[in-house]
Amino acid sequence: MSEQTGKQLSKEEKDARFEAELLPVLDPLYNFAYRLTLDEDDANDLVQETYLKAYRFFDYFEQGTNAKAWLFRILKNSFINEFRKKSKQPAKVDYSEVEGYYNSEDVEGEGGVASTTDMRTESVQDLIGDEVASALNALPVDFRTVIILCDLEGFTYEEMAKILDIPIGTVRSRLHRARNSLKEKLEKYAKTMGYNS
Amino acid sequence: MESKFTEAYQKAPDEGYETDCSKVSEMLDLVIDGEATSEEEKFFNTHLEECVSCFESHQKQKLLKGIISGHLKRVIVPESLALSIRAKIQETL
């Protein structure tokens, strides 16, 4: 008999594995939570809740299986439940405020003699980022979710099917519709940026 | 010229071509997401060499994916989050 699910781990084992296997997913998990809730506090709560649940059910988590997909699934389910509880909340589109940060790497070199082209490129990049974020945030949450999972986090269709608990065929069609919808929103903008002929 | 061609093509589609185009259009996401089999990919690429409109659709779809993965800023995790997760876990034990 190989490794069994549900075997009892000692607290030390559990804590060590929690640190090594689950906590490294914190960054993508928080980003996912934020993209779902569009609110930093909600994202915080959702991530904490997810980790608490994961710790509680850790005995059922088989070593070597996909920790990231497992955590994403727990978070997605918590989000659905929370979302139901909170009833229908209007979508918050305050992204411009909360997204006024830069990747730490990008901040470097500000004292340098940035050429005008560099500065221009940078502001164009920011502009595109804002535009993409607003188009994405305007999508229905199911559409937003598949795009984040696929294009941002690089999950396979199979992993997405497991995370969302839907058949692969549904993943495909949902992704297709989500992209069409996003394309529509970005098309006008893309044209002005010269992406389209 | 090109629109004339498209028009004529839409009115009287060569049956084989139409099938290939719709097949390729259904494969777009699969190919872009790296989910196509090597056989599918071969068929896809061969068709793209002879069909401008499918070639363009592919470019657009690729661009869209690139825009998302390349331009969407990641939010920075609050430093306190990992700490409070650990604390909460110890609390609830």
UniProtKB/TrEMBL annotation, chain A:
A Pfam family of this chain: Sigma70_r2
GO biological process, one term: DNA-templated transcription initiation
One Gene Ontology term of the molecular function aspect: DNA binding
Keyword Translocase: no
Highest rank taxon of the organism: Bacteria
Alphabetic keyword roster: Sigma factor, Transcription, Transcription regulation
Residues of the RNA polymerase sigma factor 70 region 4 type domain: 131-181
Domain RNA polymerase sigma-70 region intervals: 26-88
Statement: the UniProt record of this protein carries the keyword Disulfide bond: no
PANTHER family for this protein: ECF RNA POLYMERASE SIGMA FACTOR SIGR (PTHR43133:SF59), RNA POLYMERASE ECF-TYPE SIGMA FACTO (PTHR43133)
Sequence similarity: Belongs to the sigma-70 factor family. ECF subfamily.
Annotated protein name in UniProt: Sigma-70 family RNA polymerase sigma factor
Organism for this UniProt entry: Pontibacter cellulosilyticus
From TrEMBL, chain B:
Top-rank taxon: Bacteria
The Putative zinc-finger domain, residue ranges: 21-54
Protein name per Swiss-Prot or TrEMBL: Zf-HC2 domain-containing protein
